[in-house]
Structure formats: C-alpha cells, structure tokens
Design brief:
Helix content: 40-55%
CATH architecture of the largest domain: 3-Layer(aba) Sandwich
Number of helices: 19
Distance between the termini: 34 Å
Low-confidence stretches: 187-191
CATH class of the largest domain: Alpha Beta
Mean pLDDT: 91
Structural class: alpha/beta
Radius of gyration: 23 Å
Number of strands: 17
Length: about 450
C-alpha cells in the first residue's frame, strides 16, 4: 500500500504528524506532497525539522496569491505528482486551499480521498474554509471525523455511515506528542523571541489572522480597543504578517506598541508556541485549531468569532464565542479572572476530541478498507435500479445491524427528538429510520 499526504500550512503539518508516525511505524510507503502555501520558512519548512518529520518528497512552492490562483497552481502540481506516483489513497487534513486542491484533483483522477477532520461545519458560507471543507467532503471516500456531531453532519448530507470513522482529533495526538519533544529539548526553559516568559504572570496568548477580522477595520478596531482595557494581563501576541500589515494600514499597530503589557512578537516555532500556550492563563483567538489545543491543554479560550466549526468546545464549556464586541470580550475575560469557580469549570471542561489515539484509528480504518478491497473507485452499473430510499417508524427492539441484515438495506439516518449516529448496536425502537433498500 502507498499513501500520499497533501499539506501546505502549519496546522496541517502539526495535525498530520501522528498519522505520518503511524504510517512509518507500520512500514507503509508514503509520498509527502508539500504545496508551499506558507512561503515563509519560519511558518512552514522548519516545522518538519522541529517535529521530527521526514522531508517532503515534493514541494510545489505555490507561495501566496488569490484563492483561485493558489488553488489552480496546487491542483496542477499535485496532478503531476499523482500521475507519476501509483498511490492507493490521498489524505488531506482540514479546510485549507491545499485540502480543496488535493481532494478535487484526486477525485478527478479516481484516486480515493481520505479527509481527516471531515464533517466540521460553521454553516457560514462566507468563510473560504467552509467551502473548502464541504467540497473536500463531496470528493472523499473515507471520512475521519473528530466527534459524533461531525459524523451526524455528514449523515445529514447523505454520506454512508460505513465510510465514516469517529477517530477523535489528531490535535490531541499532536499536543501530547509535541509537548514531549519540547520538554526533551528544554523548550520551556528557553527565551521566546528574547522574551523571558518565565518572568511573566497572567499570560494571555493572542492570535488573530482570519479575513473576517483582520480585513474589517471596524472589527479589528473593536478588538484592539478591548485589548487596551486588559491592563492586568500580559498579552503575548505572535503577529501574523497579514494582521500586522492591516494593523499598520488602519493606524492601529502603534496604539498596541505603546502599551507596556502587550508584547508583539514575530511568529514563533511551533514547539515554542506550544510552550507558550502551556504557560497561558487564557487564550484569545480566531483560530479553529487553537480552540482544540486550548481544551486539550485545559486552558480557557475565547474565540473572536460569531460561529465555530468546533461547537463541541463551546458545548462542553471550555470555549466562549465573543465575536469582535469590545464589551463582550472585556466582560467575559473579567468574569474568568474574577470568578474562580467559573474559571475552573472552563479549565476542567471535558475534551470532546479523544484520548490521543486518532492517528492509530485512522490507519486501522485505511488498512481495513485496503485489505477488503474497498478503496477501489469504479463506475457503478444501473445505480438508479439498485436501491430504493424508504422511511419507517420502528416499533420493535432491533439494532441497526439487525435491521440492515433483515431488510437487505443500509441505514442512512435515525432520529426522534434528535438525530443519532447509526452505530451497529444502536437500538432503534420508537425511532424514525431513513434507509436504502437494495434490490435482490
């Protein structure tokens, strides 16, 4: 078996690390394709070294550019690689342009796609990431979802339960894996961009990079105004190049630089950043991945957005959406700092993303598909005659598996007051079931 992995940004590299580890541990051949979406060496290439990962076999070097240009260049480069490499499956992770390009071109070449972190939905189609993740899911053959909620999103969109695998999120694997690396290298005892974080207390780590915040002057100004009120916190702000550019353009950067408690630093290596997070009392971000890292590290996080594709972090109490409202940001931070019971509740929120074994579960599922000859993509014959979609109200004690065997069918959706993921052993009594009944 040969597995290709397409990645291009720091979060993808981080989240794919445990999958790459597991592929190598099982002596499976791997083809690593780096799109070069993050053209800054500090934000991409060094991560492979920092995380003890192999050097990419191919680097497409697309650099920066518009969404269309970037995606087109990626598709062209990935296509050339995949035509020359006889791979059995292509893995993509998350919701970047690299994911969109990798999934689209693989499906065009009839190569099965495995989407890691599939099924996430913000239900905001103005976000480029939402379009990317939804398109990737349309193109995929295997879906590795972090939670049952993500699985239900896919079920609702017509994806077969037999293609969906609830594995947890590889970010948990990454945090556990990479904190060990950081500790071995004494990262926690090093200075962070000439800033001795050991001498700081009440650390608030801040990251902002999403277009809806940094390209919007009103939103960005509201966030800056809220930061100016947090005089009892030491704000560490690794600044994204795009964010810095817009802060300067909008005349807001100088206001932050004049404040003694706000430390603006350049983007740092991932291990340094993970060490910084581990020392933080609070995280303020618009990053999706950072919401996951925060709950894994038991750190309260406030998300500078009005929606999230990680709703589980909000539901379990470890994350609060504050948008770009100055009043909401300040009010929520003060509540966390001044109310120990509330703060502890956020810190102790249950992690919905698993126990750190996602990489292992993903490879188990891929090997099972491969050895059972389920990865093949072939043109179906008389597909419209092969099944009929039906609905039934179940009155008997019967599990999903028993129902499918008895009725020569495949269960699609199950619900009563809410929707359930159709596990084999789920009892469907008093539920409504939508299923495909196959013709003999």
């Amino acid at each position: 078996m040969k597995i290709a992995i397409v990645l291009g940004t720091r979060p993808e590299i981080i989240k794919m690390a445990s999958v790459i580890d597991e592929i190598k541990r099982r002596n499976i051949e791997i083809v690593l394709i780096h799109t070069g979406q993050h053209y800054d060496k500090e934000m991409s290439e060094n991560f492979f070294i920092d995380l003890n990962l192999p050097t990419p076999d191919y680097n497409i070097n697309v650099g920066s550019g518009s969404h269309g240009r970037q995606t087109a260049l990626m598709m062209n480069g990935i296509e050339e690689v995949l035509i020359n490499e006889d791979v059995d499956i292509v893995l993509v992770q998350g919701d970047t342009n690299a994911v969109l390009a990798g999934a689209l071109i693989s499906s065009k070449l009839h190569i099965p796609v495995g989407h890691i972190e599939a099924g996430l939905r913000s239900f905001d189609d103005t976000m480029p990431e939402e379009i990317n993740r939804k398109t990737a899911d349309v193109c995929s053959k295997m879906y590795f979802v972090p939670t049952e909620e993500s699985a239900i999103n896919l079920i609702s969109e017509g994806i077969s339960r037999k293609q969906i695998f609830i594995t947890g999120n590889t970010i948990v694997d990454a945090c556990y894996r990479n904190l060990k690396i950081a500790n071995k290298r004494n990262i926690n005892e090093k200075s962070l961009a000439d800033l001795d974080i050991d001498n700081l207390s009440n650390i608030l780590t801040l990251t902002i990079h999403r277009a809806e915040n940094v390209d919007n002057k009103v939103r960005l100004k509201n966030i800056v105004e809220s930061l100016k009120e947090l005089k009892n916190m030491n704000l560490i702000f690794p600044i994204h190049p795009r964010t810095k550019k817009n802060l300067e353009e909008f005349g807001l950067l100088k206001e932050l630089e004049e404040l003694n408690n706000i430390h603006i630093i350049k983007p740092v290596g991932y291990l340094d950043f993970l060490a910084l997070l581990s020392k933080s009392s609070l995280i303020l971000t618009d990053s999706g991945g950072l919401q996951e890292e925060a709950i894994t590290l038991n750190i309260p996080v406030l998300t500078l957005r009005y929606n999230t594709e990680r709703p589980e972090t909000v539901e379990t109490g470890g994350n609060i959406l504050v948008g770009s409202s100055k009043e909401k940001i300040i009010e929520t931070i003060n509540k966390i700092l001044n109310n120990k019971e509330f703060r502890d509740k956020m810190k102790n929120a249950k992690n919905p993303y698993g126990d750190g074994s996602a990489g292992f579960k993903i490879l188990d599922a891929i090997e099972k598909f491969y050895f059972n000859d389920l990865l093949k993509i072939e043109s179906p014959e008389d597909i419209m005659l092969s099944f009929k979609r039906e609905i039934a109200n179940i009155k008997e004690d019967i599990t999903v598996k028993e129902f499918e065997d008895k009725n020569n069918s495949s269960v699609k959706m199950i619900y009563n007051e809410k929707m359930y993921f159709p596990y084999d052993d789920l009892n469907m009594k008093d539920m409504i079931v939508v299923y495909d009944k196959f013709n003999l």
